[in-house]
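Example S7 (structure tokens).
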């Protein structure tokens, strides 16, 4: 939402208007709309739940639980309100917490309005579903089995509405295709968002049901508050996970920055290889966790250059056989640096083997075919692609279509055809828009001698026109 398009602003405004409609009718309008059958609003319960939700929202978005804004919203209180109050009153519980909680990301006003309207609609719909399936009467009678069925329905409605609204705003702001493309190529389709959020929201729904049962019991609201204690513990654990994740990201950034400082000609290369690796992984239908690991693999694949003398990395002329052997040690250096970082998982194997070739002519161990880890085969394709499409001190960038054709020509000998085709499909659909470009690196020196074929470390071209397999081109600094 950083730069909200006009159509997205219209969408947010429409959702906000629908949310306002859900807040009606207040008691005096209810008599007109419903007549004598107007639902009674227990204002004391409403005020208690609204204040409780606002306090919980502030708590989970503060540092009291160990990290700022660990993510999500405190749904148990909202779902308890949906189970205890009429739909309009339940939707009204959202307002204090959603409107008053600070928003750090921009634009703050649009994000605050969006969050409030989205939750208002979802809570109203969940309350209507719960009421229609007889859940409110079941809670009043203490009929837990019937209440569980009603809770399941209302949680599904709540989750589905949140998912569809989220996917709608993402589609309008980021251009993510709503229905087109294969499931493997759409990382954030509404179905995947629904499946990913259904389990945690179901747990929140059960906590909300427990709150509602205790609230209506002889023990009263004080007993219902005890349900929130384990939820707060879970939020604290979730916050610790986010703190650990932030530390992981900081570790990776520090390593990549060290490589960029050492080899200024390839600055940004690591991030672009990570981006291309992510595109391949998503096209292959890998889950989010593994996709993230492969992104780490792409970012860290050249960390071993920290152990290579700078004069070799920046040399414009051809490398001697001894210099080439030194540079070809960088995958092993990199593996030694990262093998103790447990959260990297299979990314460590990619760092070690991303210069192996399918025909066994690569290094450091000459692995072939299926002996090469899948993560390394992904990074090898991403690495070669960025090398060909980036301007270096010793080569000019090739156009993206030319680079893809070269990868396809070398598929089956140097690169895994499956990985190559995945990258071709992904770029064909979404294009190649690297977050970090190579525009700031120095252009090639036309007076510098061209490196001799067969020297260096990776398959990088030396001329704008293809001149033989990418793996046969001079390989100097990647």
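Recovered sequence:
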């Amino acid at each position: 939402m950083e730069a909200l398009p006009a159509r997205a602003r219209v969408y947010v405004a429409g959702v906000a208007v629908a949310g306002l409609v859900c807040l009606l009718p207040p008691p005096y309008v209810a008599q007109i709309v419903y007549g004598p059958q107007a639902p009674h609003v227990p204002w004391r319960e409403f005020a208690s739940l609204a204040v409780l939700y606002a306090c919980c929202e502030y708590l989970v978005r503060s540092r009291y639980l160990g990290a700022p804004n660990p993510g999500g919203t405190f749904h148990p209180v909202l779902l308890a309100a949906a189970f205890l109050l009429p739909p309009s009153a339940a939707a009204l519980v959202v307002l204090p917490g959603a409107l008053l909680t600070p928003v750090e990301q921009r634009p703050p006003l649009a994000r605050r309005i969006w969050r409030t309207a989205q939750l208002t609609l979802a809570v109203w719909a969940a309350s209507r579903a719960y009421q229609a399936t007889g859940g409110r009467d079941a809670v009043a009678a203490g009929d837990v089995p019937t209440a569980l069925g009603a809770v399941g329905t209302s949680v599904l409605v709540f989750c589905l509405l949140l998912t569809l609204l989220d996917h709608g705003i993402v589609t309008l702001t980021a251009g993510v295709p709503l229905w087109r493309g294969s499931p493997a190529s759409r990382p954030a389709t509404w179905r995947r968002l629904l499946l990913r959020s259904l389990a945690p929201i179901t747990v929140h729904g059960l906590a909300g049901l427990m709150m509602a049962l205790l609230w209506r019991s002889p023990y009263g609201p004080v007993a219902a508050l005890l349900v929130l204690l384990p939820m707060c513990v879970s939020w604290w654990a979730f916050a610790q996970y986010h703190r650990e994740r932030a530390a992981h990201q900081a570790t990776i950034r520090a390593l990549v920055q060290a490589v960029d400082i050492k080899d200024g000609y390839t600055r940004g290369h690591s991030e672009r290889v990570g981006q291309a690796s992510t595109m391949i992984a998503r096209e292959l239908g890998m889950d989010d966790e593994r996709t993230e690991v492969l992104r780490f693999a792409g970012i860290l694949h050249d960390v071993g250059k920290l152990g290579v003398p700078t004069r070799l990395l920046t040399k414009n002329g051809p490398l001697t056989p001894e210099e080439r052997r030194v540079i070809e040690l960088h995958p092993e250096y990199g593996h030694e640096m990262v093998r103790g970082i447990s959260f990297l998982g299979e990314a460590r194997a990619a760092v070690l083997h991303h210069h192996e070739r399918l025909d066994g002519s690569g290094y450091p161990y000459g692995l072939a075919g299926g002996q090469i880890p899948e993560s390394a085969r992904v990074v090898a394709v991403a690495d070669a692609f960025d090398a060909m499409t980036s301007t270096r001190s010793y080569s000019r960038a090739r156009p993206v279509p030319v680079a893809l054709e070269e990868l396809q020509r070398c598929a089956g000998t140097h690169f895994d055809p499956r990985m190559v085709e995945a990258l071709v499909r992904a770029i064909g659909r979404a294009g190649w828009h690297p977050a970090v470009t190579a525009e700031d690196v120095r252009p090639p020196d036309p007076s510098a001698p061209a490196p001799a074929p067969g020297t260096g470390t990776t398959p990088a071209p030396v001329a704008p026109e293809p001149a033989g397999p990418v793996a046969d081109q001079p390989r100097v600094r990647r």
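Notes on this example. Residues 27-35, 64-72, 176-188, 438-478 have pLDDT under 50 and may be disordered.
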